[in-house]
Please model this.
Amino acid sequence: MSEDVAAATTLPATAAETSPENPWPLQLLSQKLKVHIDRAPSAWVEGQVIELNRRGTNAYLTLRDVDAEISLPASVWTKVLDRQEIPLERGSRVVALLKTEFWLKTGRLNMSVKDIRPVGLGDLLARIERLRHALAAEGLFSEARKKPLPLLPHRIGLITGRDSDAKKDVLRNAALRWPAVEFEIREVAVQGNTAVAQVVAALRELDAHPVVDVIVIARGGGALEDLLPFSSEELIRAVSAAATPVVSAIGHEADRPILDDVADLRASTPTDAAKRIVPDVVEELARVRQARDQLRRGATRLVEREADRLAALRSRPVLASPEVMVSTRHDDVERLKGRSRAAVTTAVVRATDQLAHLKAQVRALSPQKTLDRGYAVVQLADGAAAPGTRRDVVRRPDQAPPGTPLAVRVAGGRFNAESTGGLEPTDN
Model:
């Protein structure tokens, strides 16, 4: 017993510590794998039943992914299958609760189905609607994101089934409307688990093509399960990210996959798509003829209208007798010259009278006129004022005390005098 304990303690604690000299026993590896795998929780998965075999109380089935080439074998008790109201068959779409199991003795890994439920039409519709609302909340269906289609595409990218009626409808109706139309065709699976991957790959290839102006994804009608690839989130996001305008032409008018919501244009049928991506050459030629007729009529009306205007201008008096304009203007100039001359003369006479009046006023107010009326100006004589000051006019008696030399200016000239004193100053 002690030897077994000693041997256990010498074994590596982890797989990374094992070596050729100190390996794990196979039993220990199997035990650790079982513990690790048993710890993994159960998971609900969705798939399609492609094989189903009953063997007594056990049944063995193979599930395949609905959008990829991936399959997984699993086992289930027949009593789990017997609980189903509708027996499961090959091709049924189901959701299953899988639990991973590891058989210790044989080292086999088994996927055990603990519960399984068929996915009905109502479940699929509910799932599509949930996805539709989630993508709409992200803004992938916003009108602001939709790109306008070219008026006349140089080349149309067409993604459709191999030798399908949808392909023939698009090609035939587009050629009938515009015989010179060109197509870049990608034939892919339009249903089944590989449809999404192939359609997305074709879409990205055509989106990167330098001469493709618009891409049409076309498919004929079918059951809801057949149209499920065109409601795949992967495809919807690829269409939203495309730089080239995308037209959805899936099924009939009643079919409404999510692709219709994210596409830049939804066509009710492949035939309708052909009619909406290229113009009708007959209609366009008719429009050209109509436009030419309108231009011709417009030019004719313009020439006639301008000719009438020229005739009206030529009939006017100014053009019939051009000298009338000159003679009329000559009379106006002469009349204006006379009025200007009279106005200038009147202004000069008035200004002369005003100047003489102003001269008389200035002379009446001059100091000389005051002196002529007998008045005199008495100033302090030179030397009587303080040094460096001007000679002051005597206005008060106290400015000329007795003995102050004075200079008196009268109308006839100037003489000197001396103050002998005076009276008290008066208010006048």
